[in-house]
What does this fold into?
Amino acid sequence: MLKKHFFDPDFKFASKELIKFLSVSKFNNYNCLDIPSGNGRNIYLLSKYFNKVIGVDINKTYLDEIELNKGKYKSKNISTIQNDILEEISLDFKQFDFICISHFYNRLFFNYLETKINSGVILYIETPTCRGCNYLELPTESELNLFLESFNILKIKKNICGSEGNIVKSISFTAILEKK
It folds into this structure.
C-alpha cells in the first residue's frame, strides 16, 4: 500500500540528520537530486535550501502527489521525473551538487551513481533500517568500505543489522559524503 503524503510544514517527518546538515550549510545557488523521492518526505525541505530540486521515483502516484502539494509548501523550484532508478536514467547527474538518497539501498545503483557524478558532489544517504527483511538488501561491511573509498566521509553513523560471531551480516547507515 502506498503511503500518502500529509502536509508537514514544520518538516517533523523529514530526516533529522538531513535537517541538521542543511541548517548549517549554504546551498542557495546549487541543484539537488532527491532519488527516490517517494511521497515527498524530504523534497519540500530540500526545496527551501536549493535553487532547483528534481525528484525521481518509479511511482507516478507519488510524483503526482508531489506536484499537487508544491503550492502548499510554496515550492516552485521542484520538478519530478518518473523513472525506475534501477534502469538507465536519462538525466545529466553532473548538474547536481547535492544528492539525497533516503530509505533506499541498492549496490548496483550506488555503483552506477558513483560513475556519473562530479567530484565535490555531496551525497546524503540514509539506508533503510534493520527492521524486517531490509538487512537482506543492505551492504556488508566490506561492500560499504569499498563504496566509501571514492568519498570523503563528512559524517557517518552505522548500525549493525545482524551478525554471527564476529561476522557482520549487513549494515544500515546514514552518511554525508563528498565525492573525491
Observations:
- The mean pLDDT is 89.
- The helical segments are 16-23, 43-47, 60-73, 107-116, 141-148.
- The domain at 26-179 is CATH 3.40.50.150 (Rossmann fold).
- The longest helix spans residues 60-73.
